[in-house]
Design a protein that fits this description.
The chain is α/β, with parallel strands linked by helices. One of its GO terms (molecular function) is pentosyltransferase activity.
């Protein structure tokens, strides 16, 4: 019997030892998770009293029950929804649930709103790829593990992300507008982003940190429930590459967005004295032939530009190109020229007074000015437009002149066929005699900038 008792005690002791080790491992894991989030949240198993204190700290009774979830669906480009009271982010079903205070009691009606936080709501095809976010009021809220003292701003980095133009037009510029409109330029909010890709975070890390001082929360990868004092879902857009001053709290414009770019990428520029030169620098945007709209006589165009008086630099941007290096190159230049396309978005890096020449192929004439001309002028650039003739288009080898012009007019609705022919198949062969006159005019303006600003 003694041996039996000894064995039983030994077995019991081993069980307690094993249980203790398991609890220790769990504690280590929770501590590790806590360290990962310590920069922006408190992670702990709170008691009801502690959570009640946090809830009361962020709770407001100022809004009637019917307005707990506020949505604005009146705009062409975007929808927004918000809850201006404490919420739980239930990560498993992409839902933000209103947290009720203990003295409010259970609500009899449940309010549910759904929104896709990407500012191209008129475009059904791309919006079908955007994850829907749900906001709920009136339902019992689950407990949360991560408690934040800063509100959440939710938006999607999906859609056309990967295209440099859309990364600014559908993402960064709307984020700037929302940052100034909803948060008054205060960095005290947390970015919660869906369809997030690591290359995008790495590429725009410096710029994103100019908006929020907190680490980004990856919508899909987050497994723990989070509590926020409030949440806003969706970004505000004013249209194509534009910021409308009368819609902004302090009449901000696209120039203010450029100031943000300058403060982000200009602050890291190391200024090294350079030998004095008398030739203004011209950046020639070079496109790969596989995407269409390439300049077939690019080298000849470069020679003509150099003979005009420019020091011409070929610039072929890639998806993972350093924004810092791109900024340094273009911001220090006096002129930029390229064929209509996403890469022309680099005009945002040009200094006011610099020359920007857009080469417009057959087809996108109606949008060329909207995409780049109008915002370039708003930035204070010397904008010029070189519209190619039919003979300068590579499509003349496949289609008649009449077919080209009439086809562009008839199908200029950005259909799949239109984009295939006019945007992907078309390359350009610049008339070097004709373009020389544009370059001469650009040179005079660039020299003027060079004399005043270096």
């Amino acid at each position: 019997m003694k041996h039996g008792k000894i064995k039983l005690c030994s077995l019991t002791g081993m069980m307690f030892l094993t249980l203790g080790m398991i609890l220790l491992v769990i504690q280590i894991i929770l501590t590790s998770i806590g360290k990962q989030h310590s920069e922006h949240a408190t992670i702990t198993h709170w008691t009801q009293g502690q959570e009640k204190t946090w809830l009361l700290k962020h709770h407001s009774n100022s809004e009637p029950p019917t307005q707990l979830i506020k949505c604005d669906r009146s705009h062409k480009f975007y929808d927004t929804c918000s809850i201006n009271r404490p919420v739980v982010f239930e990560t498993t079903n992409s839902t933000f649930i209103l947290m009720e205070s203990r003295n409010e009691g259970k609500r009899t009606n449940i309010v549910i709103e759904n929104v896709k936080p990407y500012p191209r709501k008129w475009e059904k095809q791309v919006m079908s790829t955007i994850q829907e976010v749900t906001l709920v009021a009136g339902s019992s809220s689950p407990p949360c593990l991560v408690h934040h003292d800063a509100p959440a701003l939710v938006f999607s980095a999906g859609g056309y992300t990967g295209n440099f133009f859309h990364e600014f037009n559908d993402g960064l510029i709307p984020l700037f507008i929302t940052f100034k409109t909803m948060f008054q330029g205060n960095q005290e909010f947390i970015l919660v982003i869906s369809e997030l890709q690591q290359w995008w975070v790495s590429k725009y890390e410096d710029l994103l940190s100019s908006f929020s001082k907190y680490p980004i929360i990856d919508f899909e990868k987050e497994k723990m429930s989070h509590c926020f004092p409030s949440v806003s879902v969706g970004l505000i857009s004013h249209g194509l590459m534009t910021i409308t001053p009368k819609l902004m709290p302090n009449s901000e414009t696209i120039r203010d967005f450029r100031v943000l770019l300058e403060s982000t990428y200009g602050r890291n520029v190391t200024y090294i004295p350079k030998p004095r030169v008398n030739r203004p620098r011209l950046v020639l945007i070079s496109r790969g032939g596989h995407d269409g709209r390439a300049i077939l006589n690019e080298e000849e165009l470069k020679i003509v530009a150099n003979r005009t008086g420019f020091k011409t630099i070929l610039f072929r941007p890639t998806t993972n190109a350093s924004l810092q290096q791109s900024y340094e190159l273009i911001n220090s230049s006096h002129a930029m020229v390229g064929v209509h396309g996403a890469a022309l978005t680099h005009f945002l890096y040009l200094r006011p007074g610099a020359v920007f020449i857009q080469i417009v192929p057959i087809g996108p004439e109606d949008v060329a000015d909207k995409y780049f001309g109008k915002p370039a002028r708003e930035l204070g650039l010397e904008y010029m437009e070189y519209k190619i003739g039919v003979k300068e288009s590579s499509l003349i080898d496949r289609y008649s002149k009449r077919h080209l012009v009439q086809g562009a007019i008839a199908r200029n609705a950005w259909s799949k066929e239109f984009k295939s022919v006019y945007m992907r198949e078309q390359n350009v062969r610049i008339d070097l005699v004709r373009v020389r006159e544009y370059l001469k005019q650009a040179y005079r303006k660039a020299k003027r900038l060079m004399r005043t600003n270096g």
